[in-house]
Amino acid sequence: MNSALLVNIFRFIVLLAIQIVIFNNMNFLGYISPFPYLLYIILYPVNSNRSGLIISSFLLGLTMDMFCNSGGIHATACVILAYYRPYIFKFSFGLSYEYQTIKLNESLTPERFSFILVSVILHHIILFTFEAFQFKFIGDVLLRTLFSSIFTIIVSIIIIYLIKPNKR
Amino acid sequence: MQQIFNFIIRNSNRLLFLLLLGISLALTIQSHSYHRSRVISSANFLSGGVYERINRVNEYLNLRTQNDELVLENARLKSLLFNKEDTTKIPLADSIKGVKPADIIVSKVIHNSYNTHENYITLNSGAKEGMKQDMGVINSLGIIGVVDNTSKNYSTVVSILNMKSHINAKLKKSNHFGSLTWSGKSTGFVQLEDVPRLASIRKGDTIVTGGQSVIFPEGINIGTVEKIYVKTGTSYYVIDVKLFNDMTNLGHVYVIKSKDREELINLEKKENDE
């Protein structure tokens, strides 16, 4: 129980640090940038405290907003993703997901991939919509969501494979 | 009473979600309104400190371009100095226009964003050095932005690549002025709006800051005219201005502290009150 908490705190800090130091400086073609920090929300233990997830996601988003000078857009997107995470679980893994112990950081099955895909697209579309905040940029928002989602998913899967614990 | 508590306990996650969503939406909407500066900004101890550390490493990567820029500016200043008739003579104040006294604070960009619609720059000097809201930020090539938030050691700047930014600018050769905005598309170009069609403008003309704002002194370089449109249904031009500055590569900057700023602001406030 305690070690799970420590692992979460560790993930929170490390993912934020990686995001701020490395990935915030990446822009392909001027507008495509990955946001692998939301792996924190994706990898949060399935059966753990849900209000803990919502509060920590809010803090995660707020820290990102502080570093990006972006008002509250990351906080909004993270809170919405954290709240709807169980529904995405149901969508991807079927109704009985709570009884299995789903470990996302194992080999990539179609269910796991669809869960990451839906989460990332939900997060990005909220993020870019609130960033533009005007209807006339709708095309721009969709384009950014599409390309940044692809990029985020690739980076996320690479990170999941890199931090995968060794099996004996 | 019991039922109320039961309701709260049963729906605690939903209530928590709605509360936090409300807070973050309020922050988002507040940050998009023009006249208020944002609550959450990178001008603070934590993010300012982190960005300063990162910048110490990144600085070395573009020392060459920074040096080139400094040499060019030195050459320009030297040529001004040598072409004066008498270098020991004190410059006389222009009796009609008056010289606007201004102080300069040297500062350094420690974080720069240019890939969103509302871009901000973080500088490594703050209230301790005398930075205040609405001061102009320039470098040797042209204007960069306007100071937004300040903390003790750091400050954030609304970049000219920010759709909220409106800066008074004019043509160098005539006095036709307009408002400098950004369409959010390219980092190399900004738009000069509301220039009357009476003005004769050609491609390659220089755009400088106008004297109407208290933020920038008159005549600081911005860029050259690249394309000219007529805004549909109006008699005004919209001009694409190619910036002299490369906004994706900024190093040292100068913050302008205009001395009669307070006086002008007080005067305008008094007139508005009456």
From TrEMBL, chain A:
Keywords: Membrane, Transmembrane, Transmembrane helix. It comes from the Bacteria. The chain crosses the membrane at residues 5-22, 28-46, 58-84, 113-130, 142-163. This is Rod shape-determining protein MreD.
From TrEMBL, chain B:
One of its GO terms (biological process) is regulation of cell shape. InterPro entries: Cell/Rod_1, Cell/Rod_MreC_2, MreC, MreC_beta-barrel_core. Keywords: Cell shape. It comes from the Bacteria. One of its GO terms (cellular component) is plasma membrane. Residues 109-257 form the Rod shape-determining protein MreC beta-barrel core domain. Belongs to the MreC family. This is Cell shape-determining protein MreC. The lineage of its organism: Bacteria, Pseudomonadati, Bacteroidota, Flavobacteriia, Flavobacteriales.
